[in-house]
Amino acid sequence: MRNIKAIIFDLDGVLVATAKYHYLAWKRLAKELNIEFSIEDNERLKGVSRMNSLDIILDIGGLTLDNDAKIKLAAKKNIWYVEYISKLTPADILPGVIDFLESIKINGLKIALGSASRNSMLILKNLKLTDYFDAIIDGTKVSSTKPNPEVFLKGAFALNTPPCQCIVFEDAQSGIDAAINAGMYCIGIGSKNILKKANLVLSGFSDMTFDKLELLID
Ligand code: B16
Ligand code: MG
């Protein structure tokens, strides 16, 4: 059995379902640019940084813009996105998350956030989850984005825990690659058909406790 000492959570898609808000904000921007952007296209943006997401959308529309224009567009999208996430409340936390966090604490493990989002602090605050985290590594604290392992390695370092004693929860393929690249055990949240590289896949945290999880991991 693994000697797990710390858990690192991705944010969007793991603790809260924000993908729809990213989608609505990107869709509005795409419309202004006359780019067709579908909900299927939005799947490609999960776990991807803001600027890389914009690059994907511009690529879909066959549009090339200079860096200044791109920075302005990304900022515009973020204003719309922040309008949505400003309305988040603890009722938006995904099912089972709070009980699972409590069970981790009871077992004496440390908890970190490992998210690409530069809005992580605002989201955690609105969900009233901030105090659960011993370390928060988000998009403002990394120079390389997932699948680069930096966000998770910084999380492990902040928790003073070797990567092999950390578990990562991720909903995006890029994040699963990042966790594996960090040498961590990775649990996908979502569909087994999509998150093929994860060590284990769960549909969510409903009825999950750390004791139950320990029986599932190899
Ligand atoms: P922001 P995660 C990621 O968060 C999202 O999955 C991704 O869709 C988004 O583009 C990225 O954060 C950046 O978000 O624009 O708020 O900085 O899944 O890594 O928690
Ligand atoms: Mg995610």
Structure keywords:
218 residues, alpha/beta, Rossmann fold, DNA polymerase, domain 1, 2 domains, 9 helices, 6 strands, 42% helix, 11% strand, binds 1,6-di-O-phosphono-beta-D-glucopyranose, binds magnesium ion
Walkthrough of the structure:
The protein has two domains: about 5-15 and about 90-215, HAD superfamily/HAD-like (Rossmann fold, 3-Layer(aba) Sandwich); about 20-85, DNA polymerase, domain 1 (Orthogonal Bundle). Helix content is about 40%, strand content about 10%. It has helices spanning about 20-30, 40-45, 50-60, 65-85, 95-105, 120-125, 150-160, 175-180, 210-215; strands spanning about 5-10, 110-115, 135, 165-170, 185-190, 200. Helix 1 (about 20-30) packs across helix 4 and helix 3 (about 50-60) crosses helix 4 (about 65-85). It binds 1,6-di-O-phosphono-beta-D-glucopyranose and magnesium ion. Its EC number is 5.4.2.6. It catalyses: beta-D-glucose 1-phosphate = beta-D-glucose 6-phosphate.
